[in-house]
Amino acid sequence: MIFWILIAGLTAVAALSVLVPLSRTRRLPETVASQADEAVYREQLNAIETELERGLIDADTAEAARTEIARRLLAAHERVKAAPGASRPKTGLKLAQAVAVLALPAVTFGLYLLLGTPDLPDQPLHARLTAPAEGQSVDVLVARVERHLADNPEDGQGWAVVAPVYLSLGQPRASAKAYANAIRILGPKQEWLTDMGEALAIAEQGLVTAEAQRAFEQAVALEPSAVKPRFFLAIALGQEGRKVDAIAAWEALLDGADPTAAWVGAARQELARLTGETPNMTAPRGPSQEDIAAAADMSRDDQQAMIRGMVSGLAERLTTEGGSVEEWNRLIRAYMVLGDKAEAEKALASAQAAFAENQNDLSRIKDAARQLGLSGS
Questions:
Q1: Eight-state DSSP code of residue 261
Q2: What stretches pass through the bilayer (predicted)?
Q3: Type and span of the H or E element at 232
Q4: Is residue 236 pLDDT above 90, yes or no?
Q5: CA distance 231 to 251
């Protein structure tokens, strides 16, 4: 209750600080000038009496001067009385003062009693920070974690917990710093490195800086198949103007990806922007659901045989019917996964021959081959 009483008192003081100066009668410049004239004329009358006593002027001259000065003094006095500024404050101003000083705090108090909770007990900050976490607001929970970390700066798990919260609250730099602390204390993790790089990119309005790029590269080194860091690295290549490398990175990312994945649409748009054509994301020819079910009961040798059969079918189709750059790269990569580098080299040679007249597509094939450790001519 003390709080709202103080607020009401401060409201009244604020109103008075504005209205009291307004209530004072302001004298217009004409009034000030007339008052100055009065003072001058009175001084002149005193001077005449002094000169008469000293014998500097005779009685007739003194009388004539007194008459003229008295006439001017009377006129100046009439001007002072007639000035607008001499009037008392108007009734409207007094009413406004009363409303501001009395009615406004009263109305505020009434609204608070109607809509507020004057009986609600005080909630000191310390009590809120030490209360159970259930039902607390996000701001209070963050404040609790920050207080804990201030006392325990080497609690890596605490930094890891608060880092994503900072990002959700629109504080990417604080989030990146928290991830950096967690990594420094607990060691690198792919997820933390990726999220730190993302926070740094968000802080720079989507620009993948050198620091963010290093974080993504470390994440890929820990988990080469991770999609998110590779996605941002492909964006970084495009931002650096390395068009051919960016195209190869997007193709490698999209190769074999689930067309329904949330990130695939954005990746296709980036690739289309670089190549000028929409990539084909139809599902690659592969095993049916029946084949997958049957493969589960196969031995390892039989599974390898089935995979080789599918790869051979893809190779035969590309050799006889031709195919896109993405399909040739998929075939080359499949041979490398099977550990058959010789067949991968042959497929690379065939792909280079198929796109010999298209330098852009040929560069994309060579770049993908270099990433696989092949020496395309």
A1: S
A2: 95-115
A3: helix 227-239
A4: yes
A5: 11
Task: Dump the DSSP string for 236-252.
Answer: HHHHTT-HHHHHHHHHH
Domain boundaries 291-371, CATH class: mainly alpha
Rounded to an integer, the average pLDDT of 280-297 is 48
Q: Is the dihedral of CA 304, 307, 313, 314 positive or negative?
A: negative
pTM above 0.90, yes or no: no
Does residue 89 carry a pLDDT above 80? Answer: no
Query: How many other CB atoms sit within 10 Å of the CB of residue 167?
Result: 22
Extents of the domains making up the chain: 2-115, 140-187, 204-283, 291-371
pLDDT of residue 185: 96
SS3 content of the chain, % helix, strand, coil (to 5): 75, 0, 25
CATH of domain 204-283: 1.25.40.10
Q: What's the token pair of residue 201?
A: 């990119």
> Which range, of 17-26, 300-309, 312-321, 327-336, averages the lowest pLDDT?
17-26
Distance from the Cα of residue 212 to its chain's centroid: 18
Nearest-angstrom CA–CA distance, 229 and 225? 9
Confidence band of 59 (pLDDT split at 50, 70, 90): confident
Residue type, 24: R
Phi-psi domain of 206 (left: phi exceeds 0; alpha: psi -120 through 50; beta: other): left
C-alpha span between 172 and 134 (Å, rounded): 26
What mean pLDDT do residues 328-333 have?
84
Longest dimension (CA), the chain: 146
Q: How is 269-319 classified by DSSP, letter by letter? A: HHHHHHHSSPPP-SPPS---HHHHHHHTTS-HHHHHHHHHHHHHHHHHHHH
